[in-house]
Amino acid sequence: MKCVKSTMKLSKTVINCWKYIKAFGLFKGICVYVKIRLPSKKTYVKIVIPLSKTPIFVRVNSSDRHAFDQVFMAQECKLPVECKPKLIIDGGANVGYASVYYANKYPDAMIVAVEPDMGNFSMLQLNSQPYDNIRTIIGGLWSKCCHLRIINPADSAWAFRVQAGTSADGIKAITIDDILQESGFEAIDILKLDIEGAEKDVFLNNYGSWLSKVKVIVVELHDYIVPGCSAALEAATSAYGFKRVQNGEKLVLYKDFL
């Protein structure tokens, strides 16, 4: 039995390592696998990959590696159409991987990255620091201006959920309309949302002023956490002629005129 378990563990290691090799090449893939997947006493490691002109920082033994895999290996934020975005909103930016991905792919775009957790926000700032076109905001996306609180602080860092709270909770709610108005742009070219169920509130309330101005939505839906997320999105977007394609855990909605 011990031999069987060892063999299975080795097979899993080989399979996982191969995924990195396939994504980044033999030498680079092995280096990334070792840094991300193997235990370390470091707080975070620095990863160099072809998809980014700057190093990517990943906290060891954390959910950062799963977020890294989604963005840079599976490329779940990749669009099915060509476009030249001017304004990108990264809602639920976590540690900044999607923002960095877009900053490299669309260097002329302004990217507004919003993250409610201070630990994640510190890593977001570290990852985005070299990019003049990434603006970081500590807060959470919501349908109105209020205060929010994290309701699951013991969960993985990429799974924090927020709900309306009081001023004592200290997390500022940010509306998409406010971001758009403050940006000076007339439209949101890409709206990326990975906000752990808060998308239900965003698409259920007060979306009339900004939704018609969105060209692409990249969203991860969390019905298993907050029932009704998909229904809220469908009801809000049905009149705007979005086409839909699934890319891993992300649903991409886009308009024909891009």
What does this structure look like?
It contains 8 helices and 13 strands. The chain is of the alpha/beta class. It has a domain at 77-254: Vaccinia Virus protein VP39 (Rossmann fold, 3-Layer(aba) Sandwich). Strands 5-4-3-10-11-13-12 form a 7-stranded mixed sheet, sandwiched between helices. A 4-stranded mixed sheet has the order 6-9-7-8. A two-stranded antiparallel sheet has the order 1-2. Strand 1 (44-47) and strand 2 form a beta hairpin. Helix 1 (2-24) crosses helix 2 (26-37). The mean pLDDT is 93.
Q: SSE layout and pairings?
A:
Layout: H1 2-24, H2 26-37, E1 44-47, E2 56-59, H3 64-73, E3 87-91, H4 97-105, E4 110-115, H5 118-128, E5 134-138, E6 140-141, E7 147-150, E8 162-164, E9 171-174, H6 176-183, E10 188-193, H7 199-204, E11 214-219, H8 229-237, E12 243-247, E13 250-254
Parallel strand pairs: 3-4, 3-10, 4-5, 6-9, 10-11
Antiparallel strand pairs: 1-2, 7-8, 7-9, 11-13, 12-13
Helix pairs in contact: 1-2
- Element-level helix/strand string: HHEEHEHEHEEEEEHEHEHEE
Approximately what portion of the residues adopt beta-strand conformation? 15-25%
Low-pLDDT residue spans = none
- Widest sheet: strand order? 5-4-3-10-11-13-12
| Number of H/I helices | 8
Distance between the termini: 57 Å
